[in-house]
Design brief:
Shape: rod-shaped
CATH topology of the largest domain: Nucleotidyltransferase, domain 5
CATH class of the largest domain: Alpha Beta
CATH architecture of the largest domain: 2-Layer Sandwich
Largest sheet: 5 strands, mixed
Strand order of the largest sheet: 3-2-1-4-5
Oligomer: single chain
Number of strands: 5
């Protein structure tokens, strides 16, 4: 005879019926044609494992919760990996283009896959700098700037020892409007002027800054073309300004060359020297300050190509190049400040006339009241 097989659902239904106590175990067993002992064992097994049913349910819910959390973390990680991949590709594409902060600002795009905030974080720049739009200066602003710069040049020429604070005080008294020291400091930097006073040598030049020794210390200068001095100065002109590069012979005070430009660059410096060399020959030494024009590769290479030794003032040592500093002062006090040059052409003609007068008609006490042209040509005439 084949043994009967009972499904779990069938066993559970009979046990539940017995637990309801509507029929006895014997009645249920007789009706279903099974052994009472067998039904009793099913009931016993059900009751023993009932607690496990609830435990498995709780464990199952906890497992489902952990699975769900793991899946969510995986999705978050995949999203972050995708975002980082986009950011790395974006950095590789853009960061090599420019390392300066101002250049990095131009790399930020508002329609990129990465938000503007995140782009700024990656580029290490302030987000406000991306949205900043400088206002266009009005004609009144430009005129006021040129006027203040002209007065700065005047007071610096007259009292070169005045610092930023005292110059700001002077200008405020003149203009009857507060002129801040930060504005004065910025304008002085743009004009290439600084307060003249002895300073301790507490700083060291950067590795990229070329510096040449001061060759004139204890040197006996007794010939023309032995030493030339070169420098640049700010010149007021109408509603604008220009920059004058001048070259002067140290021995005779003779102005051998000059060039007028609207920018502080190296090209006008080389042009002034080149013309002077073409007309008067090559000097042994050219002395200058430590301005960027005189430390540039082009200027250094030009001197080297012409066999000229380069000399430089000590840092903040205006007295080391005093010959040309005094000439600039004479030019401005005698000519620029008392004239009204409104165009570059007028200014160029005025400077040319002054240089001619200075070289050929102006006696110098330090030259025994002789003219610079006489002293310069005396050696060659002999």
């Amino acid at each position: 005879m084949k043994r009967r097989q009972f499904s779990p659902e069938y066993k559970a239904r009979l046990v539940v019926e017995s637990l309801r106590e509507e029929n006895t175990l014997s009645e249920i067993a007789a009706r279903e044609e099974i052994s009472r002992v067998q039904l009793q064992n099913w009931k016993k097994e059900f009751l023993e494992n009932a607690g496990r049913v609830f435990s498995q349910s709780r464990d199952g819910r906890e497992a489902q919760r952990r699975i769900k959390e793991t899946q969510e973390r995986e999705r978050d990680l995949m999203a972050k990996v995708g975002q980082l991949t986009v950011e790395v590709d974006w950095l590789k594409k853009n960061l090599h283009k420019c390392s300066a902060p101002t250049g990095r600002i131009n790399l930020v795009t508002k329609n990129a896959e990465i938000s503007v905030k995140r782009q700024c974080e990656l580029l290490e720049i302030n987000r406000t700098s991306v949205y900043y739009k400088p206002s266009t200066p009005t004609e009144v602003d430009v005129e006021r700037e040129e006027h203040i710069k002209a007065r700065l040049d005047f007071w610096h020429t007259k009292m070169c020892y005045l610092g930023v604070r005292r110059l700001a005080k002077k200008l405020t008294e003149e203009e009857l409007i507060a002129v801040g020291r930060k504005l004065v400091k910025r304008y002085m930097a743009e004009m290439g002027i600084y307060c003249v006073y002895p300073k301790p040598n507490l700083s060291k030049n950067g590795k990229e800054h070329k510096c040449f020794p001061y060759l004139l210390r204890n040197m006996s200068i007794f010939l023309p073309n032995q030493v030339w001095a070169i420098d640049i100065t700010y010149i007021k002109m109408g509603k604008s300004h220009m920059y004058l590069t001048a070259v002067i012979d140290w021995y005779s005070r003779y102005v051998v060359g000059w060039e007028l430009s609207d920018s502080l660059g190296t090209a006008p410096v080389i042009e002034a020297l080149s013309r002077a060399i073409t007309r008067y020959g090559t000097p042994a030494i050219v002395n200058s300050d430590q301005g960027s024009q005189f430390t540039s590769d082009d200027y250094v290479a030009f001197l080297k190509a012409n066999g000229i030794r380069q000399s430089m003032d000590g840092k903040a040592r205006w007295v080391d190049n005093v010959i040309i500093e005094r000439w600039f002062r004479s030019l401005k006090c005698d000519n620029i400040y008392v004239s009204e040059y409104n165009t570059p052409r007028e200014l160029r003609l005025g400077i040319a006339a002054y240089v001619d007068e200075y070289n050929n008609e102006r006696p110098h006490q330090s030259l025994d009241y002789r003219y610079p042209v006489q002293v310069y040509n005396s050696i060659f005439a002999a």
